[in-house]
Structure formats: C-alpha cells, structure tokens
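Reviewer 2 asked us to include a model.

Predict the structure of this chain.
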Amino acid sequence: MKFYFKNILMKIILVVLTVFNFSYTYAEECGLVVHGSDMMKFDTNEIHINKNCEKFVVNLKHSGNLPVNAMGHNIVFLESNNLQKVISKINMSHGIENGFMPEMDEILFKSKMIGGGEETTLELDPNVFISGKEYIFICSFPGHFALMKGKLNI
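Predicted model (structure tokens):
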C-alpha cells in the first residue's frame, strides 16, 4: 500500500511540473525582445514565430542614447519579395510618425519609431503569415534597412 501511494504521488508531481513548465515555455514562445542600438543593428537576424500562438508580441527596445530623429528604430514585417517595393518608398517626407513610409498593403506589421532608451510593443497575428512564403523584418529609418534586417521563420 505504501509503494502504491508513493507511485501515485510521484505521478501527480510529474503531471503538475509538466503543466507548469509547459505554460512557461509556451509563453516564452509567443513573444520576444529585440534590441536596436546606436550602432544601427538589431541584436538578432532571425525571429521564430510559433503558429500555435494566438498572438506574437515583439517588444522592441532601443539600447542606445541618440534621439529618435537622429537614430530612430522601428521593426517592420513584410514578405521578402516585397522588400524592394517597400524600401523604394521610404522617404523622410512621409514623417517619423509613419516610419518614413506611406500606407502600403505590403507592410504586414509596423511598430512605432523609437529613440535611445525607449521601447515599444507590437502584436503580430501569426495567421497572417502563410506557410511556404518567406518573410523578413527591417527598420524603416532611411538607410537603416541595409544593416537592420533579418529573416522571419514561421
């Protein structure tokens, strides 16, 4: 009887630990922090999005010191084959509040532009991304997209 109780107790503990560990892991898979800096680069060149997430949260943090009008950063998600079309439209005349871009269907998600010491949060709907297509992320501050870009894995 003692062995039976110990066996049941161990199974309960294992189930509880598995459930709590899964919840924590799942939460981590549905968001991440991306840092931009005054060195004009993101701290990652690849983002993995779990399609099982209801939403995916990107927290963009600018770890530099320069103001938004001198070294602003944002994060923009688009299909890879639309890159040239999108970057050809980046222009100071569109204004910092618009990420220096006009409204375009090719832009799937775009955060606000932030300066040194600031951060912003962007919620993505993973269902927007279609399996089999290639996606990227860039910074749309004029000239930054050459260095501040990466691949999106679904």
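Confidence is low (pLDDT under 50) at residues 14-27. The chain has one domain: 30-153. We have added this to the supplementary material.
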